[in-house]
UniProtKB/TrEMBL annotation:
Keywords: Methyltransferase, Transferase. Residues 43-135 form the Methyltransferase type domain. The lineage of its organism: Bacteria, Bacillati, Actinomycetota, Actinomycetes, Mycobacteriales. It comes from Mycobacterium kubicae. InterPro entries: Methyltransf_11, SAM-dependent_MTases_sf, Thiol_S-MT. PANTHER family: METHYLTRANSFERASE LIKE 7A, METHYLTRANSFERASE LIKE 7B. Signal peptide: none annotated. GO terms for molecular function: S-adenosylmethionine-dependent methyltransferase activity. One of its GO terms (biological process) is methylation. It holds the Pfam family Methyltransf_11. This is Class I SAM-dependent methyltransferase.
Length: 217
């Protein structure tokens, strides 16, 4: 594992493994769908404890998984050893990640909510893809109406402090488009009943493509 960590979330690093181990089946199903169709070289951003690793299809030749929180990266390294495809865990942020040959796909799963500058991260991911390469994403998304009001309240108070800088009310797909990607498919899913006041119950599952040969600006 390459180490250059700059992220320190001790409380989140303690609770997230428990959350991930008891993840709802609805979210697990969406994770698996998010990885369907992948092949070649894949970059996974914000791998956490390696929850996705066991779900990668055999058509994937290699996964480079970046996770800058050192406690989570250590757990991801252990999960990588049991994965069905070769996985290298790198202890860096997406912005720090060094140049390599272009990737065929990038995977984001519940991570763009927590990065400090999502626009900069998405532009960086765009530059790391080959022309025509895909971004597979499963992300928290800004909800409308009262649910959105709850999201804005928790984002402004306790939620980011407790949950690794997670911001629940982000216009993630808009940021993806503004980074230069062309969204190919997209749908929203509620993972809990609509009447339950939980700010991360709505997720967006989609795929976007790098359409040009130049780097995003």
């Amino acid at each position: 594992m390459t180490t250059a960590c700059t992220v320190d979330h001790p409380f989140f690093a303690r609770i997230w493994p428990l959350v991930a181990a008891h993840e709802a089946q609805a979210i697990r199903k969406l994770r698996r769908e998010n990885l369907t169709g992948l092949s070649g070289r894949v970059l996974e951003v914000g791998a956490g404890t390696g929850t996705n690793f066991a779900l990668y299809p055999p058509t994937v030749q290699e996964v480079v998984a970046v996770e800058p929180e050192p406690r989570l990266a250590a757990r991801a390294q252990a999960a990588a050893a049991e994965a069905p495809v070769p996985i290298e865990v790198v202890g860096q942020t997406a912005e720090q990640f060094g140049d390599r040959e272009p990737f065929d796909a990038v995977v984001c799963s519940l991570v763009l909510c927590s990065v400090g500058e999502p626009d900069a991260v998405l532009r960086r991911l765009y530059s790391l893809l080959r022309p025509g390469g895909q971004l597979h994403y499963l992300e928290h998304v800004a909800s409308p109406g009262a649910a959105g009001g709850l999201q804005r309240f928790v984002d402004a108070t306790f939620w980011p402090r407790l949950f690794g800088n997670c911001h629940t009310h982000r216009e993630t797909e808009q940021a993806i488009v503004e980074a230069g990607f062309s969204v190919q498919t997209s749908r929203r899913e509620l993972t809990m009943p609509g009447w339950l006041p939980w700010p991360v119950s709505e997720l967006v599952l989609g795929r976007a493509r790098r359409v040009s040969s130049g780097a995003a600006t």
